[in-house]
Amino acid sequence: MTPTHFSFTTAFILGLMGVAFHRTHLLSALLCLEGMMLSLFIALSVWSLQMGVTNFTPAPMMLLAFSACEASAGLALLVATARTHGTDRLQNLNLLQC
Questions:
Q1: How is the chain split into domains, by residue range?
Q2: Could you report the per-residue pLDDT of 29-78, keeping only the tens digit for each?
Q3: Contact status, residue 2 vs residue 12, Cβ threshold 8 Å
Q4: Which residues, 6 or more positions from 93, have their beta carbon under 8 angstroms from its beta carbon?
Q5: DSSP-based three-state secondary structure for 96
Q6: Can you give the pLDDT at residue 56?
Q7: Angle between helix 26-51 and 58-85 (nearest 10)
Q8: What is the Cα–Cα distance from 40 to 8, expressed in whole angstroms?
């Protein structure tokens, strides 16, 4: 495994572990998801440059656009949660309550 592949894999796994083990605040979970998406974006960009595939070059930009949409939806949920519940702690959220 090359050092480039190792660094992208490590960044993705660290983001995944952050989502899995550090779920106290919604904002920290969103930041971990954003880190995972950015590592995937950089890995796809480097892969398309290394392989010289010209048909696959729009895919990293589409992934970045979807990541921006995901981030905006997550921040909207964070604001709505903070307004209704007063905090962004995930343990205080109840899905059965309106």
A1: 3-86
A2: 889 999 999 999 999 888 888 888 878 888 888 998 999 999 999 999 88
A3: no
A4: 81, 85
A5: coil
A6: 80
A7: 180
A8: 8
Which of residues 88 and 12 earns the better pLDDT score?
A: 12
Of the pLDDT bands very low, low, confident and very high (cuts 50, 70, 90), residue 88 is confident
| Structure token digits, residue 62 | 């589409």
CB 32 within 8 A of CB 21: no
Q: CA 90 to CA 41: how far, in whole Å? A: 28
**C-beta of residue 30 within 8 angstroms of C-beta of residue 75:** yes
3-state secondary structure of 53: coil
- What is the pTM (predicted TM-score) of this model? 0.82
The CATH class of 3-86 is mainly alpha
Q: Where are the alpha helices (DSSP H) in the chain?
A: 3-21, 26-51, 58-85
Assign 25 to helix, strand or coil.
strand
Q: Could you identify the residue written with the tokens 């589409």?
A: 62
